């Protein structure tokens, strides 16, 4: 259990970078969802402001689809924390 938390915390603190077609370096920030899947976004979602009624839509560079990100404040390991539920956006249902 502690090993999983350590790995997750390392993933959350690291960021990946790649270059776009113009040779400009683009950072991708990892996010672990409630199903323990890793997603990568251009913006650091964990530091973004969310409106509770609307999920935020971002393009996942790992899965190459648009995804809705909904923050949920719940009990995790006897501590209240923000976790993120990620689902496929209707833009990606083709």
Provide key terms for this protein:
94 residues, mainly beta, three-stranded antiparallel beta sheet, 1 helix, 6 strands
Order of helices and strands: HEEEEEE
* Assembly of the depicted chains: single chain
The CA-CA distance between the termini, in Å, is 38 Å
Please tally the β strands and state the result.
6
Residues in β-strands, percent? over 45%
What is the gyration radius calculated from CA atoms?
Answer: 14 Å
What is the general shape?
globular
Which runs of at least 5 residues are low in confidence (pLDDT < 50)? Answer: none
Helix content: 10-25%
Number of domains: 1
Mean pLDDT: 79
Number of helices: 1
Strand order of the largest sheet: 1-2-3
What structural category do the secondary elements indicate? mainly beta
The biggest sheet, with number of strands, parallel, antiparallel or mixed sense and barrel status, is:
3 strands, antiparallel
Question: Secondary structure elements and their pairing?
Answer:
Layout: H1 2-13, E1 16-19, E2 25-32, E3 38-41, E4 56-60, E5 65-76, E6 79-88
Antiparallel strand pairs: 1-2, 2-3, 4-5, 5-6
């Amino acid at each position: 259990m502690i090993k999983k938390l350590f790995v997750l915390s390392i993933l959350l603190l690291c960021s990946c970078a790649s270059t776009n077609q113009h040779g400009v370096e683009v950072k991708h920030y990892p996010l672990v969802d409630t199903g323990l899947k890793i997603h990568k976004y251009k913006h650091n979602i964990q530091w973004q402001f969310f409106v509770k009624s609307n999920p935020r839509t971002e393009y996942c560079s790992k899965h190459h689809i648009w995804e809705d990100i909904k923050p949920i404040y719940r009990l995790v390991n006897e501590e209240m924390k923000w976790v993120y539920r990620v689902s496929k956006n209707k833009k990606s249902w083709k």
